[in-house]
């Protein structure tokens, strides 16, 4: 296939042609390199530089190229974005980055932004002491252990991707499921979280995880 013919193909057509070793894969990687760089700018990898993050993002893009299913409802770009972000977040977590904390520390138990305007009619949030934050994290770690014991593999994967900020459509593409299956999994997760809440608790500290 001529180079001019390759560049004229859509992303989805290129994915279908990748198995023929005709330059389609190289064209897809070249075409979406800017997407990788754009995604990588949102993350910080401890002990590494920007090129390391771009390399991780390219691995995610390669995964998208080799695993994209054109029969699914989303575009290749949507699937590629999900794969790139998932790879970057996994790399950041593995490195123990302080900017993007692991799941146990990243959930908004009591978080707020100093840049955000205060809510009208509501008092500003109270700053927690290090001791209070530590207790909150320990409580959540115990809650997460109990939750993991009742989630199915699909529900666990869905929860992790949801907490990473992926949309239902992106999660569906990444897991090769329908958006309805993802929505059903999220609803089951919510019910299980509600059942795990202490019955005497009025604060329900983990009710808004998902």
UniProtKB/TrEMBL annotation:
One of the entry's Gene Ontology molecular-function terms is: DNA binding
Q: Which GO terms describe its biological process?
A: DNA-templated transcription initiation
Among PROSITE patterns, the record links this protein to: SIGMA70_1 (PS00715)
Q: Which UniProt keywords apply?
A: DNA-binding, Sigma factor, Transcription, Transcription regulation
Q: Which Pfam families match?
A: Sigma70_r2, Sigma70_r4_2
- The question of whether Transcription is a record keyword is answered with yes
Q: Which residues form the RNA polymerase sigma-70 domain?
A: 52-65
Q: Matching SUPFAM superfamilies, A to Z?
A: C-terminal effector domain of the bipartite response regulators, Sigma2 domain of RNA polymerase sigma factors
Q: Which superkingdom heads the taxonomic lineage of this protein's source?
A: Bacteria
Keyword match rRNA-binding: no
Q: Which Gene3D superfamilies does UniProt cross-reference here?
A: 1.20.120.1810, Winged helix-like DNA-binding domain superfamily/Winged helix DNA-binding domain
PANTHER family attached here?
RNA POLYMERASE SIGMA-H FACTOR, SIGMA FACTOR F FLAGELLAR
Stated family = Belongs to the sigma-70 factor family.
Q: What does this protein do?
A: Sigma factors are initiation factors that promote the attachment of RNA polymerase to specific initiation sites and are then released. Sigma-S contributes to the protection against external stress, thus playing a role in cellular fitness and survival.
Q: Which NCBIfam families match?
A: sigma70-ECF
Q: What is this protein called?
A: RNA polymerase sigma factor SigS
Q: Which organism is it from?
A: Candidatus Avoscillospira avistercoris
> What phylogenetic lineage does the species belong to?
Bacteria, Bacillati, Bacillota, Clostridia, Eubacteriales
